[in-house]
UniProtKB/TrEMBL annotation:
It comes from Cryobacterium cheniae. It comes from the Bacteria. GO terms for biological process: peptidoglycan catabolic process. One of its GO terms (molecular function) is peptidoglycan lytic transglycosylase activity. It holds the Pfam family SLT_2. This is Transglycosylase SLT domain-containing protein. Residues 81-143 form the Transglycosylase SLT domain. The lineage of its organism: Bacteria, Bacillati, Actinomycetota, Actinomycetes, Micrococcales.
């Protein structure tokens, strides 16, 4: 599975650049599962290069079903110059991508639709919250990713389910 390469690569990169973070690949995989079914949401698929095609775009954040977030990127990442939309397999809001975007595959471009880039960016965002082997710190970081307690519980259960078979 192409997504797994992105999660594992990001985890290894983070271990080298932020050894005190202790973010496991399984957390990134759980986020990818919950956010986009590992890049398969709404008919998308990850290509051999790790890019979601067609691109993955969340609903307009216009306050009707989710928080209202006015456009922050002039539509550059999400195609909307009125409201922001989360983008890519890890569903970054454009302003968050602007801060945390990463070039995980080394091609010189940071693209939220590319799983290596998105996984590394998500990992850096989570590691910003510190040492994540402590459950309360891990929950704080994942809650920051999406401010819903049930989301954190789902990500935790999914991450744990991935960790068990891996040993």
């Amino acid at each position: 599975m192409r997504a797994l390469l992105g999660y594992a690569g990001a985890s290894l990169a983070l271990a080298a650049e932020q050894s005190g973070c202790h973010l496991g690949w399984n957390t990134l995989a759980a986020l990818g599962s919950v956010e986009s079914g590992h890049g398969t949401h709404d008919g998308s698929a990850l290509g051999a290069d790790g890019t979601a095609l067609p691109g993955i775009f969340g609903p307009a954040l216009d306050g009707s079903a989710f928080a209202a977030i006015s456009d922050t990127d002039r539509g550059a990442w999400d195609g909307s110059s009125e409201w922001d939309r989360a983008v890519g397999p890890l569903q970054f809001i454009p302003a968050t991508w602007e801060r945390w975007g990463a070039d995980g595959n080394g091609d010189g471009v940071d693209d939220p639709q590319q799983i290596d880039d998105a996984a590394l960016a998500a990992g850096r965002y989570l590691c910003h919250y510190g040492e994540l082997s402590r459950p309360e710190r891990w929950r704080t970081a994942v809650f920051a990713f999406n401010h819903v307690d049930s989301y954190v519980d789902t990500v935790a259960a999914t991450a744990n389910s991935y960790a068990v078979p891996a040993g």
